[in-house]
């Protein structure tokens, strides 16, 4: 017999998060299907000590993997439409920005270690801009406090994610025109009011080939994760690389994601990110909280300066520069790129950063202990 009370406690928060996504999308918020659920999940997580928050345990692993795969496939189009020269230019830039952000992360980790008493391994892994899921795996290898690492990484994810829409709306104006080949909003037409009911249903449902591509990309990610357990973001990077390579050879292969798949992916990822900010976590780590936020501010300032330099040198437009250098929130960035027709260099820089951090991260805590001994 179904427990009505338990079912209601499970479904209502998720429905509220989905409603938040629908409202944000309707209001024209960039990547509204992700930002809306994230904001609602944060609010619900802070209510009644987190008891009203959505239960995100079911997002591990397959719904979360579905969300990551869909976001990765969204990023295929901009990469496939970019010239090889443009993509190649992103490699050295990505390495420079990665090194700069890692140096700032080291400074932030020292602040966290000395002022808040967080052990060296935990402070380093908690501040690295490599993504929450990847840093959790690194934390296990380095013997760091996994709970603190997740808290710190998701706090930065929230700050970055909630700042991106404001930056997009601020910069994406007449002075920073979209490229001529910019795509319409994800899954949408240039004039939605001109669409009939049949077109709307087709837009949301997609066709069998799109769903087959999602299934194939998820199978690829599962195979990579099994064969290479330490491969960074196995449900994101392999899908982007394989999809972009295929689309460059056969342009018709570039996926056109069903709007339903995009909405579900964003709701799952946004809700999972927002549900980690409970009052219990904030209370437990209240001593370190100011220093974690200071570290996030240092990273944002560094990446904003990097973005300004890219913009001033004419490498990319203002919005694309900011997206390319954002310290994390890759799924949200990929969604923005697909939604507004951004440059493929943005995706390349994030992929290179994730791989570089993944390769370097396991040895960094020990290196930091040698270079900066406790006083």
Automatic annotation (TrEMBL):
Keywords for the protein's UniProt record, in alphabetical order: Membrane, Transmembrane, Transmembrane helix
Give me the segments passing through the membrane.
Answer: 34-54, 66-83, 89-112, 154-171, 208-228, 235-254, 260-279, 291-313, 341-361
UniProt-listed Pfam families: AbrB (PF05145)
Has keyword Transmembrane? yes
Instruction: Report the domain of life of the source organism.
Output: Bacteria
Keyword Transmembrane helix among record annotations: yes
InterPro entries from the UniProt entry = AbrB_dup, AbrB_fam
Q: What is this protein called?
A: Membrane AbrB-like protein
Q: Which organism is it from?
A: Corynebacterium freneyi
């Amino acid at each position: 017999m179904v427990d009505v009370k338990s079912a209601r406690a499970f479904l209502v928060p998720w429905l509220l998060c989905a409603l938040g996504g629908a409202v944000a999308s309707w209001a024209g918020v960039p990547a509204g299907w992700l930002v809306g659920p994230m904001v609602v999940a944060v609010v619900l997580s802070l209510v009644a000590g987190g008891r009203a928050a959505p239960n995100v345990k079911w997002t591990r692993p397959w719904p979360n993997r579905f969300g990551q795969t869909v976001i990765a496939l969204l990023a295929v189009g901009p990469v496939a439409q970019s010239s090889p020269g443009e993509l190649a230019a992103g490699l050295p830039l990505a390495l420079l920005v990665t090194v700069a952000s890692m140096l700032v992360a080291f400074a932030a980790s020292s602040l966290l270690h000395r002022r808040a008493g967080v052990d060296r391994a935990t402070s380093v892994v908690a501040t690295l801009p490599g993504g929450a899921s990847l840093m959790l795996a690194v934390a296990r290898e380095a013997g760091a406090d996994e709970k603190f690492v997740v808290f710190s990484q998701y706090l930065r994810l929230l700050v970055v994610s909630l700042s991106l829409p404001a930056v997009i709306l601020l910069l994406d104006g007449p002075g920073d025109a979209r490229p001529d080949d910019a795509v319409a909003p994800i899954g949408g037409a240039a004039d939605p009011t001109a669409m009939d009911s049949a077109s709307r249903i087709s837009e949301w449902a997609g066709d069998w080939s799109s769903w087959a591509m999602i299934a194939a990309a998820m199978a690829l990610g599962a195979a990579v994760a099994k064969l290479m357990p330490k491969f960074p973001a196995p449900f994101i990077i392999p899908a982007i690389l394989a999809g972009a390579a295929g689309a460059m050879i056969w342009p018709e292969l570039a996926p056109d994601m069903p709007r339903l798949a995009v909405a579900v992916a964003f709701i799952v990822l946004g809700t999972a990110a927002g549900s980690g900010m409970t009052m219990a976590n904030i209370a437990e780590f209240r001593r370190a909280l100011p220093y974690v936020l200071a570290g996030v501010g240092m990273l944002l300032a560094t990446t904003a300066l990097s973005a300004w330099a890219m913009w001033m040198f004419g490498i990319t437009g203002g919005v694309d520069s900011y997206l390319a250098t954002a310290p994390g929130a890759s799924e949200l960035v990929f969604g923005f790129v697909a939604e507004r027709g951004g440059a493929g260099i943005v995706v390349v820089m994030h992929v290179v950063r994730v791989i570089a951090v993944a390769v370097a991260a396991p040895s960094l805590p020990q290196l930091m202990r040698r270079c900066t001994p406790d006083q």
